[in-house]
Amino acid sequence: WILGWFMCKAVSYLQGVSVSASVNTLVAISLERFLAICYPMKGQITTRVARNVIVLIWTFSLLISLPWAVHFSLTPLTPDLPDIELCVEMWPHPSSELLYFILANLVLCYLFPLCLITACYVGIWVKVWRRHIPGETNGNARVSSVIQRSKLKVVKMMLIVVIIFVMSWLPLYIIFTRIKIGGDIEPNSLEENILVVIAPIAQWLGSSNSCINPVLYAFLNKKFRKGFKAIIKSKKCCGTLRYETPSSMVLTTRAVTLRSTQRFNGTHSTTAV
């Protein structure tokens, strides 16, 4: 019984923590991109700031999910079957349960993050689309076409991220809103039978957003792919990561060529440009 009681509270609590951390990580990524693109000189994120943001995200997630650890408990399925228990929310007052759902779950974990993510990506889209790059307006059709494709790629990635976030969590929040706010559901009704079937699917769909995002970023962003490769090769996730870029490879080639030329001419200098 003690193990079941502990698992009921621990699983519910950790599930809430992971959802909140995942959503707020998406918000942090969108804010970082907005600052990097719209304010490149002022919005640079250092390693120390990134660590503080990660600590803040997890601290917030651990605190906001505490009521689930307190109010989730085991209850018998029916009075006739006391040995079969379900892990459900047991709040002392219905008003406190409704208030927590609206503020902590619906607003802080869905609506407010969605507004922030959308606002950041709209700001990025406006900045990128209005930016005039040399070569775009000088009559060079090929350069202009490449720049336009690059802009469309950025906009497509932002739209995909926002749409997947909305569609992943929307069914689950619709179901929760109906259960919490829509009144009692008649036993053995069509609505109850539908909710019993689609609720686990909606919960799986919302949780899948956490594993979709890394795959999504890896497919749509070359820098994320290089970052993932650098983490795997360095076998660490914190600190400065070093990985080769095309510019560094060109620089190395030029340096080697210059040294070879100097050595051939009888010069012993090792200075590289």
TrEMBL record:
Pfam family, one: 7tm_1
Entries under InterPro entries matching the protein: GPCR_Rhodpsn (IPR000276), GPCR_Rhodpsn_7TM (IPR017452), NPY_rcpt (IPR000611)
Record Gene3D superfamilies: Rhodopsin 7-helix transmembrane proteins
Domain G-protein coupled receptors family 1 profile, first and last residues per copy: 1-217
Membrane topology: Multi-pass membrane protein
Signal sequence, renumbered to the chain: none
Segments crossing the lipid bilayer: 12-31, 52-70, 98-124, 157-176, 196-220
Keywords tagged on the record: Cell membrane, G-protein coupled receptor, Membrane, Receptor, Transducer, Transmembrane, Transmembrane helix
Subcellular compartments: Cell membrane
Entry keyword annotation includes Transmembrane helix: yes
Keyword Metal-binding tagged: no
CDD domains linked: 7tmA_CCKR-like
Protein family membership: Belongs to the G-protein coupled receptor 1 family.
Protein name, UniProt field: Neuropeptide SIFamide receptor-like
Organism: Limulus polyphemus
